[in-house]
Write a structure and sequence with these properties.
335 residues, alpha+beta, Aminopeptidase, Elongation Factor Tu (Ef-tu), domain 3, 2 domains, eleven-stranded mixed sheet, six-stranded antiparallel β-barrel, 17 strands, globular
Amino acid sequence: MIETKELLMKLSEIDAPSGMEEKAHGYLKEILGSGFETKLHGFVHEIKGGGKPKVGIFCHLDEIGLLVAKEKEDGFFYLETVGGVDPKILPSTRVKVYTKSGIVRGVIGIIAPHLTPPDKKGKVQGFDDILLDASIDDWGKINVGDRVVLDVKPEELGDLITGKAIDNRAGCAVLIKTKEFLESLKHEADVYLVFSTMEEVGGPGAKSIAHQLKLDYALVTDVTFAEKVDGHKKINMGDGPAIGIGPFIDKKLFELAKGVAEKHGIKYQIEALPRRTGTDTDSIRTARIGIKTLLVSVPIKYMHTPVEIVNPKDIEETARLFAHIIAQLRGDENE
């Protein structure tokens, strides 16, 4: 059994931007062992139960990244986003470029304040001004279409973890931990751990796999904002997972999740989701003729930056909640 902090730090360190998730897949196979199946839009690990019901637990495997869009001159390259990358996080960062010749390291520089024109001082640069700078020895190795990721190592901050790709490697850790908890519980369900691809670019990963598996239930985990929003209750790190409630959430699964959490002493929070959730929940819910779907989110800070922060205890509590929900599900309830 791998310790949660260690697991999360390893997952964070892996580079797997949308459409290039192979390295993360390799690590998951190493951790989970046999029973892994590669789908066109993701990877599935099956845990046999009694055959009914069929339950999918979903997280997305990909992270935000960048793409080499055009060469400017003298080893400088323009970039485009893959997923929701805010340009203000990029200047003065180190990056890795995945080329056909291997990994090339570079930086996204910024003009020194002494040389910045007065009309640009204090302003956030757009992608027309943000350039990848690589060594002269590597200029010829970089081509349009090469993938770029932030060169960031995860770190411990006391009991917390900070790093890139916590969205949604936290979810990957939830699925791995759920399997561990299920080993000590009896369950009738056949369970499918689904690591979907391309969520950050609105891709078809989760919906495609949900369609193929013909599921009765789907439990989705992603991250949510551990920040106060005016007029709304704050979601806190360390206070357990946030159970979603709203039009895309199955009401019976929501009530089951609350009851299970209270019965087993699992800390939880409630997150109001009055419209689309912005996660794979939205597409899974409408797969085939519809799938009963629940969203349980891990609170993090600084989403879509190189310094996302998460409390590993929230990951463990999410996994414990999922395992006990699965133990409660029966095949005849869906007939």
